[in-house]
Design brief:
This protein has about 140 residues and is mainly α. It has one domain: Arc Repressor Mutant, subunit A. Helices cover about 45% and strands about 5% of the residues. Strands 1-2 form a two-stranded antiparallel ribbon. Strand 1 and strand 2 form a beta hairpin. The two termini are about 30 Å apart.
């Protein structure tokens, strides 16, 4: 099963919320607006800033804002900022972790094509599209749906 980690899921939530306004937000405000724990938001903002998705503003009115328009940020950008390169396996042409049988492997070279297809698909979904999706409120136990 291919899964993104929880931190990446939180990154999408945080960035979607940030895209709904253009103001600079503190880590504590982002945490309050999203429900994502404060230490997690602080960790995320560092990774997202390093990935070029948000920019840090210093001073009394400091905090974070998106570094570019939400339509120009893809889901692939978010995943790569938090988790690193998108790959279904470590068996890609430029991987540091070679398995040792790449010359004999019938799949050598093919995984790169699959990884590129996944990357293109994730590149085709923008943060703006994610943020525009309706938010569903959880239904309390015993409540009619």
């Amino acid at each position: 099963m291919i899964r993104i980690n929880r931190l990446t899921d939180y990154a999408v939530v945080v960035l979607a919320e940030m895209s709904r306004g253009s103001d600079v937000r503190t880590v504590s405000r982002i945490s309050a607006d999203t429900g994502v724990p404060l230490p997690t938001v602080a960790k995320l903002m560092k990774a997202l800033a390093h990935g070029g998705l948000v920019v840090s503003h210093r001073g009394a009115a400091g905090g974070y804002s998106l570094n570019r328009n939400a339509a120009a940020i893809s889901v692939a950008d978010i995943i790569e900022a938090v988790e690193g390169p998108i790959a279904i396996t470590a068996c890609v042409d430029d991987a540091d972790d070679q398995c040792g049988i790449e010359q004999l492997c019938p799949m050598h070279g093919h995984w790169s094509r699959i990884n590129q297809a996944i990357r293109r698909s994730l590149d085709g979904i923008s943060l703006a599209e994610i943020a525009a999706m309706p938010v569903f409120e959880p239904v309390a136990a015993g409540q009619p749906i």
